[in-house]
């Protein structure tokens, strides 16, 4: 499989089929791993980075249960392709902006991806649709075992897995859940929820990390601390807190429906109308209106669209995706026009969404 | 014909069929007349007002070329019906809010209406679609002759027709044209146009008189002075200035298309989207968006709607019209909901507009 083929496809985690997927977009587990025989990335020279990448690539290719793995050399990519992989949640923004020999290995169904030579030698991640950390954890545990058989991880009997940043030492695990919380934003309760999460060491970030809280009401909820905790404990911590946030969001939605259904219906319906008719539209505006439409569909206020279509549009209307789908570089102004056109062909009465699915 | 039957119908002047009707909605001529044997309204007592109304009613009924004339006693109407006639441009706001015996006589095709006991004993008006003051003038001249045969007008050999307000003495005529000038508003040239009109004694007012300039970019252009001018001169004054304003508006539209067609297309298309999807919407917002859509249709940026449909919606989405059409009194909040529903059933892919026409 080639990178270009990914653009028109859709990762399994975006299908909107998992548990609680009206509020939880996806569950993600990532493991940080380092190779015992190499220095950490920050201390590694160019030659060592290349050796790591080549070794890891060869070992991955030898794992029979990982067929058709796409091993992407980031250095050889242009800026649009790098941004594309970030928008796709297959690698970090830091990875896109870094220098030197580095790669990302991608499962064709996007069930997992593995960054090579990011902050650690290896960053494995598994994504599942909806709230399903157990499946994500089981899958990544298996991937970790399979890869661990081929490579020698840096491991300390007392400390556990060794990582470049001390905050990851131990399990090297981060457990996170991407939540869609528009009603808590409208009712202004979101800050209160976040403050109580901080007290129990649960971190909250925007769609693409810190400072992006205005991006379509999406929030990543994840464990803050890893050292001294078992993998099961980390999964449990996040698994315990997420249902409570879901409950808050549901109550806020019920409140909005009960107190001001007409306002809410008007708001989501106009958002849909704008997405269906704008002749140019920015990414931010698109996220903003898609977020409203997504809540509207989940509340039964809009019936003509599938959640899967909206989930896909969140990703496919982003700058690099648009350029990949159109097969050409586009200026910001041209992207805004293409984005409007793309939205119109996938929403509304004459949309392509059925054909695409 | 009954008043209720008017609500679902559409006056000829709204059909959008007249000359220059992309920019000129309608042409209107009105004549002020008073009866020689009665004091002016401001000096008349209740009994005299009743006598005037009864006399005029009887005489009008005896004119054979005025069949099916609807003679409406304003005192017997509730507030919604009064407002309905104002929205319909069949009588003035002052007439609706006044007290005492008064009436309006309405031609079934709404080609003309005659207010009885407004500021003057009689106020005749004729409306035509587009820029067609000559037809309006010929029609009202004929109506005036027909009515003048039955009644004795207060007329002075030197001054001409006598009127309650000295500014109307002479011909008693006001010539006005309702123009749609959205591009001059967007390009901020409208104020300049207005200042030059003031210099040549041409008045500019909003849709419903002074201070309503934000109502959907509609402006009434009319003669300021009547004394000392003949009817033909008054028609000529307005007839000469209107084509110049049309030319300015057309140039402003061309400028917008040439300089920022994408912005303009986006703006009018979103306006259409909001009208098609809002679940509640105020009169002001409706006028604002309908105005953009009207320009969009005239510029070929929106192709699925007829100008006639939009012209009708301007009138039919107003508060009293909505209530008449729904057959019940509605609160402001309920009207906003009904208005959105009405717009949706007349715009967009599944609209009723074809069936209605």
From TrEMBL, chains A, B:
Residues annotated as binding ATP: 26-30, 123, 174-178, 205-210
SUPFAM superfamilies xref list: Glutamine synthetase/guanido kinase
PROSITE patterns: PHOSPHAGEN_KINASE, PHOSPHAGEN_KINASE_C
GO cellular component, one term: extracellular space
Claim: Transferase is one of the keywords in the record: yes
Phosphagen kinase C-terminal domain segment(s): 23-252
The keyword ATP-binding is annotated on this UniProt entry: yes
Keywords: ATP-binding, Kinase, Nucleotide-binding, Transferase
Broad EC category: transferase
Pfam families linked: ATP-gua_Ptrans (PF00217)
Domain of life from the UniProt record: Bacteria
Record field: catalytic activity: L-arginyl-[protein] + ATP = N(omega)-phospho-L-arginyl-[protein] + ADP + H(+)
Protein task: Catalyzes the specific phosphorylation of arginine residues in proteins.
Stated name of the protein: Protein-arginine kinase
Lineage: Bacteria, Pseudomonadati, Planctomycetota, Planctomycetia, Pirellulales
């Amino acid at each position: 499989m080639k990178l270009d083929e990914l653009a028109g496809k859709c990762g399994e985690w975006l299908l909107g089929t998992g548990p609680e997927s009206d509020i939880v977009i996806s569950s993600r587990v990532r493991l940080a791993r380092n190779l015992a025989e190499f220095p950490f990335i920050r201390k590694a020279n160019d030659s060592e980075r290349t050796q790591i990448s080549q070794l890891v690539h060869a070992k991955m290719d030898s794992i029979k249960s990982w067929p058709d793995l796409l091993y992407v050399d980031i250095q050889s990519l242009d800026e649009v392709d790098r941004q594309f992989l970030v928008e796709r949640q297959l690698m970090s923004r830091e990875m896109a902006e870094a220098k030197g020999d580095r790669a990302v290995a991608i499962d064709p169904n996007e069930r997992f991806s593995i960054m090579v030579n990011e902050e650690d030698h290896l960053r494995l991640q598994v994504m599942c649709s909806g709230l399903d950390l157990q499946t994500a954890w089981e899958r990544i545990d298996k991937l970790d075992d399979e890869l661990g058989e081929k490579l020698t991880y840096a491991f300390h009997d007392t400390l556990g897995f060794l990582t470049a940043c001390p905050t990851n030492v131990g399990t090297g695990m981060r457990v996170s859940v991407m939540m869609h919380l528009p009603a808590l934003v409208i009712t202004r309760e979101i800050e209160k929820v976040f403050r109580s999460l901080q007290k129990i060491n649960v971190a909250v970030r925007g769609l693409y990390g810190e400072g992006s809280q205005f991006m379509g009401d999406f929030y990543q909820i994840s464990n803050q601390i890893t050292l001294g905790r078992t993998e099961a404990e980390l999964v449990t911590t996040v698994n315990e807190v997420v249902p409570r946030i879901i409950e808050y969001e549901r109550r806020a939605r019920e409140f909005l429906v009960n107190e001001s259904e007409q306002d809410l219906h008007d708001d989501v319906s106009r958002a849909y109308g704008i997405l269906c008719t704008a002749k140019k539209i920015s990414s931010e505006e698109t996220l903003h209106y898609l977020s409203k439409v997504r809540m509207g569909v989940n509340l039964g206020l809009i019936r003509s669209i599938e959640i899967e279509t909206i989930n896909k549009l969140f990703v496919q209307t982003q700058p690099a995706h648009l350029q990949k789908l159109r097969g050409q570089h586009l200026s910001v102004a041209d992207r805004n026009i293409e984005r409007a056109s793309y939205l119109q062909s996938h929403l509304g009465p004459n949309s392509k969404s059925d054909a695409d699915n």
